[in-house]
Amino acid sequence: QITLKESGPTLVRPEQTLTLTCTFSGFSISTAGVGVGWVRQAPGQALEWLALIYWDDDKRYSPSLKNRANITKDTSKNQVVLTLTNMDPVDTGTYYCAHRDEWKYVLDSWGPGILVTVSS
Amino acid sequence: DIVLTQSPDSLAVSLGERATINCKSSQTVLKSSNSKNYLAWFQQKPGQPPRLLFYWASTRELGVPERFSGSGSGTDFTLTISRVQAEDVAIYHCQQYYTTPNTFGQGTRLEIK
After folding, report:
1. Which of A46, A52, A96 faces B100 most closely, judged by CB atoms?
2. B50, A64: Cβ pair inside 8 Å?
3. In angstroms, how far is CA B12 from the centroid of its own chain?
4. Using an 8 Å Cβ cutoff, are A4 and A111 in contact?
């Protein structure tokens, strides 16, 4: 059974850097085709795809983040970390990490999400 | 970026009736090399993460009731619930994974009339 869980600060000041950790079990991010992605959702808004890291360390980002994001993986710890610099109140929302299946190519298992508020 | 536009934004359906949600892509998500449509549907209930319903546009995820069906190809896709149940109240999202960023539609809210 695949499980994921997001952790990190729930309150961030403007201009600070957000660091979120996705800790997962039930799969290995070393398996060919597997990935872990991040998606966020501002209150009452649509889902927004942010970033994805693949088993081979290929990394993809949303251009909307304007080079503020960095995604890394720690295979030994079963973790993926997303950092987002220069946080702004518009970055407030629930952040989800999810497993990218190697056969379906889609995000098929999701963590419960973590609500991050950006406020001074 | 590929833009996905869902219609309607919201709909209210009586119990047992059919619900139809559309998703239109600004460009094709059909890959000619494997004839697969890189389009997924998710269901999201309040306070919960999205749940995968369909991938490859019409392949039902394990555990999804058969009253749900996905169809379409190229740029036009449809999610149909044949007989709506109370537990189907949710927001439904389409997503393309043809190219990054893997964009989502704006979501469609389904309510019971």
Report:
1. A52
2. no
3. 16
4. yes
